[in-house]
Amino acid sequence: MSSRNISKTVIKRLPVYLRILDNLIRRDVEIVSSRELSLESGFSAEQIRKDLTYFGAFGTRGTGYNTVFLREKLLKIIGLDQKTKIIVIGAGHLGTALTRYNALKNPYVEIVAAFDRDLQVIGQKICGIEVLPFDQAPEIIRKHNIKVALITVPADSAQEVVDKVVENGVTAILNFAPAKLHAPEGVHIHNSDLTIELQSLIYYSTAEEERLSRLKQGAEEEKSQKMLKLE
After folding, report:
1. Which residue range(s) make up the domain with 220?
2. 212 and 144 share one domain
3. Chain centroid to CA 193
């Protein structure tokens, strides 16, 4: 089946399965069932089997999946069987944290360089990775055939950054800027807005009864204000 026919939601679940397999292999677990993968991932066993079937038959009915074999297959499917060279654009607090984490904890990528326009951070090193002027990004992208970029710049300059990196060969972007970005067909942008994620999470920190009570109180106050204006 062509990758064009496989939904983005399926592709996004594959790294989840890979992370679970990494953990299982570290614990010397040799065989895992779809039910056990379901318990670890939160996805149904049926969904997991369906996702994997898109790419081939990797398990044995009644036995399960060999963890090492399935991991190797997923690495090739995702494209992680070789290290992927990436760049980070924006070396502020978030960019620095992402660069440091991926340099130390992500064995599947190699960060070639980080870029910024702030003269105070240009020339500094993050885990041995030098922060270069953004003007040098096109040269580095072409020299190392970079296809993936992480963007952690302010919203008002994010589109300009996207246009420049895409122009020079980047085809996949993980965007942390709070802005809706546009790119030509064939360029994939995944957005990660940490502020929205936090705000939506806060919803679950408040009991439903309390939220309804506040809404009711607000409606009553609004009604009272309208009554006072009428008087």
Report:
1. 197-230
2. no
3. 10
69-98 confidence digits (pLDDT tens): 999 999 999 999 989 999 999 999 999 999
Q: Are residues 178 and 108 in the same domain?
A: yes
If asked whether residues 136 and 99 sit together in one domain, one would say: yes
Asked which of 43, 78, 113 is the last residue of a domain, the reply is 78
89, 111 contact by CB (below 8 A): no
pTM of the predicted protein model: 0.77
The answer for 127, left when phi > 0, alpha when psi is -120 to 50, beta otherwise, is left
Q: Give the pLDDT confidence of 105-156 residue by residue, as tens digits.
A: 999 999 999 999 999 999 999 999 999 999 999 999 999 999 999 999 999 9
Helix, strand, coil percentages in the chain from 3-state DSSP, rounded to 5: 50, 15, 30
Q: Quick one: tokens of 133?
A: 């002027």
pLDDT over threshold 70, residue 230: no
Question: How far is it, in rounded angstroms, from Cα 156 to Cα 152?
Answer: 12
Which spans in 4-114 are helix H? 8-26, 34-41, 45-53, 67-78, 93-105
Residue where the block lists tokens 């089997």: 49
Are 28 and 99 part of one and the same domain?
no
Phi and psi for 75 in degrees, rounded to 5? -60, -45
Q: Name 209's Cβ contacts closer than 8 Å, sequence gap at least 6.
A: none
> What is d(CA 151, CA 134) in angstroms, rounded to the nearest whole number?
12
* pLDDT over 60 at 4, yes or no: no
